[in-house]
Write a structure and sequence with these properties.
Elements lengths: L1 H43 L3 H13 L15 H17 L1 H12 L5 H39 L11 H18 L2 H10 L5 H6 L1 H15 L4 H40 L5 H46 L1
Helix pairs in contact: 1-3, 1-4, 2-3, 3-6, 4-5, 5-6, 7-10, 9-10
Length: about 325
């Protein structure tokens, strides 16, 4: 009874030590994530105003000659560029953050799961950055040009720097998340939640959902909605194409393995295989005979020793 109690206590201590070890590992990873974020933030702070001017350039380019951006709140000239730098540091450290999370989770994954997760992490980061770049260089010029053209006469367009930053952040996040559609599509198909054929049949619903998503995530104008909905639809088609290619490759690999496993042997290969089997049987038979002879000699030696001992007595 005491032995069983000691065994249960040791098992409980091992489980507790394992939990504590995992928590310490998670703490170390979180500290590294925060340290990386702080390092990038400190490096970008001296250039906060220049970075804000770069982000505001698509609007400033379309403002009338006598219009400028304004700061309504007292602390806006400092807090707004700082907020931009903080967000930019977070975006820049996304690969570092994902790497730390991956390092924490990877030991508990199977080999095929590791092969699947790493490309998804890399592709999701690149697609998020691509969405932000698309928003800045394609969407912002069209949207701000449209807004400045429809400004009523007698109204001076002077946008607050804080509200402009909020608008820009919303657009960046909307397009960054929207560009993750291929990853979402591929994961859903790979995990068996749905199939390529089912998503292909639901294409019309996906297009409608893309325009609804564009209506919800973008400002209330048709240009922004279309510029978000069309890429989402195209990226959905890209996800389907990637899934089809991966499934075809997996199917061809399985067929090659089956063909290689049951491939018909030639006559020369069959003769060589038979010769090898005969040689193995002959060698086994010789070893068996040798073992029997050795056993007989040992028995005979033991009998002789017993006889000699009996004669001496």
């Amino acid at each position: 009874m005491s032995d069983k109690t000691e065994t249960n206590a040791e098992t409980g201590n091992e489980q507790q030590d394992s939990i504590v070890t995992h928590l310490m590992e998670l703490r170390d990873r979180m500290i590294r994530i925060v340290a990386g974020l702080a390092l990038i933030l400190v490096a970008l702070l001296p250039f906060a105003n220049e970075l804000y001017s770069f982000v505001a350039e698509p609007l400033l380019r379309h403002l009338p000659a006598q219009s400028t951006m304004v700061a309504i709140d007292v602390a806006s000239p400092f807090l707004t560029p700082f907020k931009l730098v903080l967000l930019l540091a977070f975006v820049i450290t996304i690969p570092w953050t994902l790497y730390q999370l991956w390092s924490f989770v990877a030991p508990g994954l199977y080999r095929h799961e590791k092969r699947l997760v790493m490309p998804l992490l890399v592709s999701s980061s690149l697609l998020f950055y691509l969405g932000m770049v698309f928003a800045y260089f394609v969407v912002f010029p069209l949207v701000f040009g449209f807004f400045t053209r429809v400004t009523p006469e007698g109204v001076a367009m002077m946008t607050d720097i804080s509200r402009y930053l909020d608008f820009v952040i919303k657009m960046f996040l909307a397009f960054g998340i929207a560009f993750e559609v291929p990853v979402f599509t591929f994961v859903m198909i790979s995990t068996g939640i749905t199939t390529v054929q089912a998503l292909s049949n639901a294409r019309s619903y996906v297009i409608v959902a893309a325009f609804v998503l564009g209506m919800l995530l973008t400002p209330p104008d048709v240009i922004s909605q279309v510029l978000l909905a069309v890429p989402v639809w195209l990226l959905f088609e890209l996800g389907l194409l990637m899934s089809r290619l991966v499934q075809k490759k997996a199917a061809s690999t399985v067929e090659e393995k089956k063909e290689g496993r049951f491939e018909k042997m030639t006559e020369a290969e069959m003769e060589a295989e038979l010769d090898a089997i005969e040689e193995a049987e002959t060698e086994a038979s010789e070893n068996k005979i040798a073992s029997s002879s050795t056993l007989r000699e040992s028995i005979a030696q033991v009998d002789e020793d017993n006889k000699n001992k009996t004669n001496k007595e």
